[in-house]
TrEMBL record:
This is Transcription regulator MAATS C-terminal domain-containing protein. Pfam families: TetR_C_2. It comes from the Bacteria. Keywords: Repressor, Transcription, Transcription regulation. Signal peptide: none annotated. One of its GO terms (molecular function) is DNA binding. Residues 17-132 form the Transcription regulator MAATS C-terminal domain. The keyword Transferase does not apply.
Amino acid sequence: MNQLIQDLEESEHAGHPLIDLERAINVAFQRIVQPRYRRTYTILLYRCEQTDDIDPLKTHTSIVRESFDHMLKMMEQAASEGRLKSCISPHCAARLIHVALQGIIYDWLREPTAFDLKAEGASMLNMLFTVLKAE
């Protein structure tokens, strides 16, 4: 998730928070499918055990909160600019994106041959962002 935040900050900005976030997530999908990143995410999300030095749940929770807070700021910006549907609160939009993103990544890491993360993940997110965007 930290990498996603970095991707957000480095992505080509369209000036539209929803478009910027969707682009950054697609960049993250392209990165995650690389074997090195896939192994790292798999270890962090599925195989990390608590030791005296490391509390993976605490670390994961911190990363998730930071990621969600960043998404929330972007949704608040989108709402203030009239780019988020008025019937959807920024908090709800951020939570929806967050749980969809986590679900897609968790499912893909569990069974990478089940679907093409770059293509189908991008398509699923595009549908979600289409629902969220003001017309």
